[in-house]
Inverse folding.
């Protein structure tokens, strides 16, 4: 990119259908707004309909050329994920963009409806299940993309297979980093499996840098530093919008802000060595299918001798 990429560079989205999870505020709302203005039909998939409806009305007040539709989705309850997928499939035959944006950061220890630690359950497992349940719609849509929002915190993440639910020694920041590393491992493994299956759907990951959003509401330390370091949600959404719409995006790309990955225009960035561990990614995939009971119709990529222990 020779000049800083902005929302104005987005191509027309007329005729496209997009789902944005957690879009009642912050980066998710900005993504829904920008896509609707460019002509997309945007499904605002939110846990709280009471919060989502006025958020949708704020977008409609901007008179976008696309449509804005609110649907209930609680990623902390797999029954809700199934209900959302069923309702979507009944109404739409195509899905151009699935933006896995919703997330929770650094909360007190809680479990999801199915008993998973909240951050792992919502940030990773909920989106893993949602993507799997909608994958046939994505694969049937030319040019479809799956954009999953990770975090720069993934760099300190480790997948604790013996303590995924953090029932021992819960540390909110460590659990968050694990969930964000899981987002990247999932994205890269999904892309490998899509290629193996001969599908054109792209799996891409992003992170928003340091952005002032509701996701950090549980961290008083981060909130105190927001006025100094954080960029606005309107800037933080740019990596997501780039990954979702730019013509030069390739499967398995990872985008973040350009200035020390904290703020600025979007660019392709590198992720941690752990995020590229294919053996861990395959194991996480298997565990995720078992925990969510959502089985993907995608075979794993070929494993060569040098990958074996």
């Amino acid at each position: 990119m020779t000049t800083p990429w902005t929302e104005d560079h987005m191509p027309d989205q007329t005729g496209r259908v997009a789902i944005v999870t957690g879009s009642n505020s912050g980066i998710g709302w900005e993504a829904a707004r920008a896509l609707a203005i460019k002509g997309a039909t945007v499904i605002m998939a939110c846990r709280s309909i009471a919060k989502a409806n006025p958020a949708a009305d704020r977008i409609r007040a901007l008179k976008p050329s696309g449509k804005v539709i609110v649907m209930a989705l609680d990623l902390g309850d797999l029954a809700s994920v199934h209900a959302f997928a069923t309702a979507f499939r009944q109404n739409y035959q195509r899905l151009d963009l699935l933006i896995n944006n919703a997330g929770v950061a650094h909360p007190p220890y809680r479990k999801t409806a199915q008993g998973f630690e909240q951050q792992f359950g919502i940030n990773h497992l909920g989106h893993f299940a949602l993507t799997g349940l909608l994958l046939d719609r994505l694969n049937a849509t030319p040019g479809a993309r799956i954009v999953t929002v990770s975090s720069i915190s993934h760099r300190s993440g480790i997948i604790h297979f013996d303590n995924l639910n953090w029932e021992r020694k819960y540390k909110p920041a460590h659990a968050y980093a694990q969930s964000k590393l899981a987002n990247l491992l999932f994205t890269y493994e999904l892309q490998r499996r899509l290629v193996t299956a001969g599908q054109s759907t792209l799996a891409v990951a992003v992170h928003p840098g340091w952005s002032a959003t509701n996701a950090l509401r549980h961290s008083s330390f981060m909130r105190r530093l927001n006025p100094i370091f954080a960029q606005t949600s309107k800037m933080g959404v740019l990596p997501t919008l780039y990954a979702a719409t730019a013509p030069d995006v390739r499967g398995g790309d990872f985008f973040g802000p350009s200035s020390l990955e904290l703020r600025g225009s979007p660019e392709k960035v590198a992720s941690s060595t752990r995020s590229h561990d294919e053996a861990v990614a395959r194991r996480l995939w298997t565990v995720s299918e078992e925990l969510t009971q959502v089985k993907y119709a995608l075979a794993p990529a070929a494993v060569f001798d040098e990958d074996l222990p």
User: Anything to note?
Assistant: The chain is about 40% helix and 15% strand. The longest strand covers residues 41-46. The chain has one domain: 11-293.
